Amino acid sequence: MSAVSQIVQVGGSVLLLASFLLAQIGTLHQKSRVYLAMNSAGSAVLALDALAEHQIGFLLLEGVWSAASVVGLLRECARGADPAATAPHPNPSARHTPAKGPIS
């Protein structure tokens, strides 16, 4: 394996792991365009490297991961605005204060 291949693999892995970490700590939502773009790019880079290195199992994994991320990204882009750019509040009811007074 060449040094260039290793650099490419590290770059793709960093994109995937960074998006995963940001989602886990609540910075990115898993349906945000940023998250999906990072996943698409990282897995596409790894899929292309796997293709070049004739690693069929790794190509299958990363190719499907990339395709699924691209489909999700296209779906979110078709929806227009990106309301899922950040992770939802852990307690959704805490964002809204109930109305006071009688319900009519």
3D shape: globular
The N- and C-terminal alpha carbons lie at a distance of 71 Å
What composes the largest sheet? none
Counted by DSSP, the helix tally is: 3
Radius of gyration from CA coordinates: 19 Å
Order of helices and strands: HHH
The pLDDT mean sits at 84
pLDDT < 50 stretches: 94-99
Fraction of residues in H or I helices: 55-70%
- How many DSSP E strands? 0
- Look at the helices and sheets and give the structural class: mainly alpha
- Strand-residue fraction? under 5%
SSE topology sketch:
Blueprint: H1 3-24, H2 33-52, H3 56-78
Helix pairs in contact: 1-2, 2-3
What does this structure look like?
This protein is an all-alpha fold and 104 residues long. Helices cover 62% and strands 0% of the residues. Helix 1 packs antiparallel against helix 2 and helix 2 runs antiparallel to helix 3 (56-78). It starts with a helix and ends in a 26-residue tail after the last helix.
Brief characterization of the structure:
This protein is mostly helical and 104 residues long. The protein has 3 helices and no strands.
Entry keywords:
about 100 residues, mainly alpha, about 60% helix
